Records
---
Amino acid sequence: MVSGFLYDRLQKEVLNLRRHCEAKESDMNAKDQEIKMLMKKVEALSKAMEVESKKMKREAAARDKEAAAAKMDDNKKNRNINSSKRAMKAS
């Protein structure tokens, strides 16, 4: 009798442990799926940040070129004005 009672009790414990393991495994699978989804989001954000960085660098370079061109135009105007003044003084 005792051995039958212990066998039944052990069998119930084994079933409870299996259910507990299945529940833990399903939780782990759900968390793995969530981690994969978050990793994809991180990759997408990283790519977006990289693209935005490149865009900002291009815009900065374009502004620098425009500023340099404007400065060169100002220098040319100043040279022309100075040479005109010298020509007027010489006359």
---
Amino acid sequence: MYAKAGRVDLARDAFDEAPLRDVFLCNVMLAAYVSRSEVAEARKVFDGMPMRDLVSWNTMIHGYAMRGEVGLAREIFDGTEDRDSFSWSSMISAYAKSRRSKEALELWREMHAASIIPDCITLVSVVSACSDLGALAVGAEVHRFVESNRIELDLKLGTALIDMYAKCGDIESAQRLFDRMPEKDVQTWSSMIIGLANHGLGHESLSLFSKMISEGMKPNGVTFVGVLIACTHVGLVSEGKKYFRSMNEVHGIEPTVEHYGCMVDLLGRSGHVEEARQLIRSMTFEPDTIIWRALLGACRIHKNVEIAEEAMAKLRVLDPLGDGHYVLLSNIYAQANSWEGVAEMRKTIRRDNIQRIPGRSSIEWDEKIHEFVSGDRLHPRSKEIYRVLEEMMDRLKQAGYKPMTGLVLQDIDEQSKERSLAEHSEKLAIAFALLTTPARSTIRITKNLRACEDCHSAMKLISLVYDRKLIVRDRNRFHHFSEGQCSCKDYW
């Protein structure tokens, strides 16, 4: 009674006076502490319980999961002898929310093997983990499981599946599922609009937005992020400005820093670098790292050293250890033949001990996610992968590929620079795909960083030389490589 009324202190007094500390009273105390995020206190009660039931174990799993303490949640989960669907769901959700997606999917397979029937919350978590990893085969398997078991495809699960298909590179399946959904909310529409935009289908994305408005659905800030991304990826400057103005004027949505970032990206990539700078100066709130990085990226495309240095000055204050900023500015200096600037960036990286975030590329094969980092030799088939890589690089050079050694910031000889570029994570993933997948099948890769110019150039040639379609998801967007061309038209 006291716990339900929020008087945990009085409930605790009653608990301490209870001679037998029965399971029911203990569970009430556990739930009360967990509801107040006092998990340490809940753990004291849990550890002192002479007897526990499944509710006791599940409450502690849920408590740790809600706080993001995944290791402790797993400890309790592993100690639970008789788990139910709630136990599995809480643990899988904890992994998914913490971006420990591989572990989420491993646990899903264990749950499936144990014949535990999942609820929609579990399935949404599993699908979200698939989205994060680019695990299309597992995501599609979950969709088939939903259909074969006649599980209701509610708005959350349907939207999660649309998002998964789009993020895993299968935009066609995302569109088919979207078209079949009898009911859609703003999240469903927004997921599809963003998915189309990220695949470079800007006109289709904007057409869907128009349809959304015509059907009386009110957009939100997330919807407009997708709309502005659509304009950015196909260079629709005037349309982007119109949509940006309409946010407040027509729809009553105040643009956030994310929307301004999209506009800076749109203007900058289209060559309106000075206008992008002026837009930043007109903002009523402080620009963040994303905005200055968008401006710096535009300077790389259009070789604007002056504005790049201004953006970098801001980034050094906001994010002094962000390795990507230094690499971008170094590339800008190299394009301008300012080798003193390149040398200064290398010196700064060494002096300030700036650690580069390793590029990671993953590919799904044989029901597993295979991940590679630059120079990776840990894969069990490493020797075969490097043999294929060597053959691949030889064929590319015969087709006209020239390594962009200026992108390598290390002070090493040209041959070593070429080797460094050849061993980038996405090239290793492609070599693995060529080794393991059928000829002419589509290769799907997910990368945690923006694709570098050298890999982008190489992947265009790989699609031509090997007659393969490559779908690559990097940090910015999707690239569909086919017959020597990329869907981004070298505009990314």
